[in-house]
Design goal:
Layout (H helix, E strand, L loop, with lengths): L1 H33 L10 E3 L6 H10 L10 E8 L9 E12 L6 E2 L6 E4 L7 E3 L1 E2 L4 H4 L5 E8 L3 H13 L9 E10 L4 H9 L10 H4 L4 E6 L19 H6 L4 E3 L10 H13 L3 E3 L1 E2 L2 H4 L3 E5 L2 E9 L5 E2 L5 E3 L3 H13 L3 E7 L25 H10 L4 E4 L8 E4 L2 E4 L4 E3 L10 E10 L2 E12 L5 E3 L2 H13 L3
Parallel strand pairs: 1-2, 4-7, 9-10, 9-22, 10-11, 11-12, 15-18, 16-17, 18-19, 19-21
Antiparallel strand pairs: 2-8, 3-5, 3-6, 3-8, 9-23, 13-17, 14-15, 20-21, 23-24, 24-25
Length: 484
């Protein structure tokens, strides 16, 4: 009996040992073949230092240190695209770069043979001119006109393991249509005299904007300096506007009307007052003029898409200013301007100043006369005065009295455009007065990324359109050569 019990105990012990051995072999065998448990091999970070940029390699080494243990391998690669990429899991846009040239360069497009500088979009500012690529302008499209570099983290466990490590470093916000504020600044508009006569024959005031309305209305903000008031007494002899001309302004998507001109009172105070009411009814904001001197002096504050702009506009010319409770333009006073600029800069705002200055009249020629191209062609010290406004803290200074476009320049920390010419008017008899410059401003996070200059022209039919590309290049080159 005792011997049988001992045999049973031995058998039980043997079976238990065999079970333990088999279990251990199976347990550790599975770990061995699956590379888990004590046989687990940590995930490996793979990348080619010759393929990645040095700064990318440095970032990767800072993230994937010896203290980081991965469960699965990760392979890091890069690729490039000429279009905004559709990103797969584990992909990020590492950088967007754009071609730029000198501010005064008349080129607009980069081709593959051009030797130009290519910079990260974060370094773009108004002092360098952004070029399009094959006709695609990045600040208009945001998905073309640039070079897109993509960095990829390929891992079976990207979401759980890699993303928490790299997302804060590589997830970035890039300029987009929703984030970039666009503004078109235009020059003199005087819907009057011969335009009144033409309107009587065509019947529809949108006729005059037909060739420009789609272009100008595409901007978030469109501005013009209109110096004629609406009245039923408008004729072919006066600088007064048929009330139907409000359709010309709404057709171009006008958002801001500047009233610094010296002709807004030509039709009398009643017309000037009712014209301001018409602007208000059409949700068109006013700067540089008003029903009283106090109203006219109020700066226009713009707060859109993360950009704050203070728009100031003054009259410093041959008349039209208000000094009391009558309508008119905002008279320039040095002390007021200095205080308004300082207050705007204290708020951290971008400051644009428009000036109705003295005019150059040398354009009164049937031939091309470049005299008015020059900033010193008008009465007074235009160069010194405009530069003084930059010295006071303005970021951009624009002359809105010139009937013929004038030169432009970088000065100090800002930019000056001495005169924009005629957007809408009847002066077809002199070639210089048929042209104007449109300043296309692009703002991002309170910074001016770029101002693109687009010339326009109107024909004998008084319809404004964009100047053709070759003529525009010639004309801008002429203005560049006249800079101070």
């Amino acid at each position: 009996m005792g011997r049988r019990k001992r045999n049973r105990a031995k058998f039980f012990t043997f079976s238990l040992l065999m079970f333990i051995v088999v279990f251990a072999v199976a347990f550790f065998g599975i770990q061995y073949f699956t590379k888990t448990g004590i046989f687990k091999v940590p995930g490996v970070v793979r990348y080619d230092e010759d393929q990645l940029l040095p700064e990318q390699v440095e970032l990767i080494k800072k993230i994937f240190t010896e203290d980081v243990e991965l469960d699965k391998d990760v392979t890091i690669t890069t690729r490039n695209s000429l279009e905004y990429p559709e990103l797969a899991e584990g992909e990020y846009i590492y950088e967007i770069t754009v071609p730029v040239t000198d501010f005064y360069d008349t080129r607009t497009d980069r081709n593959e043979f051009d030797e130009v500088e290519v910079i990260p979009i974060s370094e773009l500012d108004f002092t360098r001119k952004l070029l399009s690529i094959d006709g695609e302008y990045y600040l208009d499209t945001f998905d073309k006109g640039a070079y897109y570099q993509i960095i990829s983290f390929d891992s079976e466990k990207f979401e759980e393991e890699i993303k928490p490590l790299v997302n804060d470093t590589f997830e970035k916000q890039w300029p987009s249509k929703d984030g970039v504020l666009t503004m078109a600044q235009t020059g003199v508009t005087a819907l009057s005299r011969g335009m009144n006569k033409k309107l009587s024959s065509v019947g529809d005031a949108t006729y005059f904007a037909e060739g420009i309305k789609d272009y100008l209305s595409s901007f978030d903000i469109t501005h013009t300096s209109n110096e004629s008031s609406f009245t039923d007494f408008a004729s072919s002899e006066n600088i007064c506007s048929d009330p139907r001309f409000v359709s010309t302004l709404t057709a171009i998507g006008l958002d801001i009307v500047e009233l610094t001109g010296n002709h807004n009172q030509d039709c009398g105070d009643e017309a000037a007052l009712s014209t301001i009411d018409i602007y208000n009814e059409n949700n068109i904001k006013i700067v540089g003029g008003g029903k009283t001197a106090n109203d006219a002096a109020v700066p226009l504050e713009i707060d859109e898409k993360g950009t704050d702009i203070t728009f100031l506009a003054y009259n410093l010319s041959t008349g039209g200013a208000t000094y009391d409770n009558t309508p008119g333009a905002n008279q320039y006073y040095e002390e007021n301007a200095a205080a308004e600029i300082a207050a705007a800069k204290q708020r951290g705002n971008f400051v644009i100043i428009d000036i109705q200055y003295y005019e150059c009249s040398a354009y009164a020629s049937e031939y091309e006369d470049p005299t008015c191209d020059y900033a010193n062609s008008a009465a007074g010290d235009q160069i010194g005065f405009f530069r003084h406004l930059i010295d006071l803290g303005a970021d951009v200074v624009v002359g809105t009295s010139a009937h013929q476009p004038q030169t432009f320049e970088l000065y100090g920390d800002g930019a000056i455009y001495y005169g924009l010419g005629n957007l809408f008017f009847d002066q077809v008899w002199w070639p210089g007065t048929t042209r104007s410059l449109v300043l296309e401003h692009y703002f991002y996070n309170g910074k001016l990324l770029q101002t693109r200059i687009t010339p326009t022209v109107y024909d004998n039919g008084l319809q404004t359109k964009l100047l053709d590309k070759d003529t525009a290049k010639w004309f801008l080159g002429r203005l560049v050569s006249a800079r101070p």
